[in-house]
UniProtKB/TrEMBL annotation:
GO terms for biological process: methylation. GO terms for molecular function: S-adenosylmethionine-dependent methyltransferase activity. The lineage of its organism: Bacteria, Pseudomonadati, Pseudomonadota, Gammaproteobacteria, Alteromonadales. Pfam families: Methyltransf_11. It comes from the Bacteria. Residues 41-136 form the Methyltransferase type domain. Keywords: Methyltransferase, Transferase. This is Methyltransferase type 11. InterPro entries: Methyltransf_11, SAM-dependent_MTases_sf.
């Protein structure tokens, strides 16, 4: 779902960019390492700060930055300018306009918890990820999303929300292995995971 006006102010605030650069990115990089030369997909790319960091801090060669809100896509295009190495598109992460096994790295800077049917987003992200791809995720979890105070201010789906263990398990069900994780209480967390390099072998094991 799209952000409300309060959330747009928060994510477009310079303080948000500073937190992303100095707090979130170092943790994700420590957990999953860099991805030099990668084709990276960022969901919920917002105004484009994440795409810049994916290149400058992780070493991705090309970034595909998607957002459901065309206003945010327009902001990103204006900030980043015309360039071949960052592509900003309007798209729904439950119906990605990308080919199977086409990206090397997935970036989720607190986006999946906005998706009403979030397991469908994981199915799609898994589909476009190549074997051996890395997931870098910072997520907000049920205890914070469903807190009475935040429910009054921010608009999030309230049904079928998840915690970090459930989020990890959803990826593991598609053959992803946990590389590392950090938590801030029960409401925030960072994690890195890697997709099975031999999905055919996984399929055979599941059918046995």
């Amino acid at each position: 779902m799209k952000l409300n006006i309060v959330e747009k102010v928060l994510v477009n605030n310079p303080l948000r960019a500073l937190a992303q650069r100095h707090f979130e990115v170092p943790r994700l990089k420590a957990l999953g390492g860099p991805c030099p030369g990668a084709v990276a997909l960022e969901i919920g790319g917002g105004q484009g700060e994440g795409a810049r960091l994916i290149q400058s801090e992780f070493g991705a060669q090309q970034v595909i930055s998607l957002d459901l809100d065309f206003d945010m896509v327009s902001r990103a295009r204006q900030r980043l300018g015309e360039r071949d190495d960052i592509l900003c598109l309007q798209a729904d992460c439950t119906a990605l306009p990308l080919a199977d096994a086409s990206v090397d790295a997935l970036f989720d800077f607190g986006v999946v918890h906005h998706v009403p049917h979030w397991p469908a987003a994981i199915v799609e992200l898994n589909r476009v990820a190549r074997p051996g791809a890395t997931l870098y995720a910072m997520e907000v979890y049920r205890s914070l999303i469903c807190h009475p105070l935040w429910k009054r201010v921010l608009e999030h789906p309230q049904h079928n929300r998840f915690d970090q263990d459930e989020f990890i398990a959803a990826w593991q069900a598609h053959g992803w292995t946990l590389l590392g994780q950090k938590r801030l209480g029960s409401g925030l967390g960072w994690l890195a995971m890697q997709k099975e390099r031999h999905p055919a072998a996984l399929d055979k094991a599941q059918c046995a």
